[in-house]
Amino acid sequence: MLDVRKLRYFIAVADDLHFGRAAARLHLAQPALTRQISALESQLGFRLFERSSRSVNLTCEGQQFLPYARGVVEQLLRSEHFAARLAAGTTGQLSIGYASSVALNERFTQAIQQFSHTYPAVRLTLVEEPSSAQWQHIAEGTLEIGLSRLLPPQEFDALQVQPLDQEPLLVALAADDPLAALECMSLAQLQAHPVVLYSDEQGTGLNDAIERLFQHCQLPLLRGPRGRQITSIIALVAAGQGIALVPACTRALHLPGVCYRPLSEAAASIDLLAMSHRHRRSRAADEFLRILATDPRCDVADSTKKTTPA
């Protein structure tokens, strides 16, 4: 295998066509440089330079080999620079999975925006998928970060879970429902209404939180139709097919005929969790998790304090 150091020596002599000047530029004694070039010529099986007492010139073979030597050295430099950026988390790619109900969360959207602005050379791959798929893909290594509402089961013990927030659960109901006149309502007032849920393969986290809430309040859950995404659930509410219990971020969906009201139960909340592999995570993933852990509401409050005149 060719020694890259010898290739660099060859390029230096080829550029200067003078062993003395090339040796000085390389901070190397001239006899040592001459020996290195001779060793390279022996390895290649042809002479690189024609030497005389007055001049040094490239041989025909040396002229043809020079572009290849430059290409090897330049590729090595590019590889070194890329590796340094990869180690710093400023380049490469990052794959992130997220549950449907997470897509509207301010913490998630602002983290994506800030990360993309700070690390434009990192290519983000964003995949909407249910929690169970995220667990499997993180364990397999095809996904680095998952954002979910549901803790992974014990069999996925290699996953590290980072709690980010607890979002209030709101009631989404038709604007012409008599309960819409209330500013706040209890779960008991809603028990006669069918609850629109996620399809089981899509929204296990939200469904689980809703079932636990009804059990906590010792009330029966009247199951309504199913939707695959948060938008289809709200559309079913607008069509009069029932109510929905949704994370507070869902208020961003301003669908005509639907209104949102808070619940009086203190337990009416749902977790926002970030998941990653305990032992296999890139620097880019670490940096995204750091940004994600910063509450955007705190940033807004801090900036308000700084800009408010005394």
Automatic annotation (TrEMBL):
Cross-referenced InterPro entries, in alphabetical order?
A: LysR_HTH_N, LysR_subst-bd, WH-like_DNA-bd_sf, WH_DNA-bd_sf
The answer to whether UniProt assigns keyword tRNA processing to this entry is no
Quote the cellular component terms of the Gene Ontology held in the record: protein-DNA complex
Transport as a keyword of this entry, yes or no, is no
Q: Which UniProt keywords apply?
A: DNA-binding, Transcription, Transcription regulation
Q: Return any one Pfam family short name.
A: LysR_substrate
User: What's an example of a GO molecular-function annotation for this chain?
Assistant: DNA-binding transcription factor activity
The record's comment on protein family reads: Belongs to the LysR transcriptional regulatory family.
What is the recorded name of this protein? LysR family transcriptional regulator
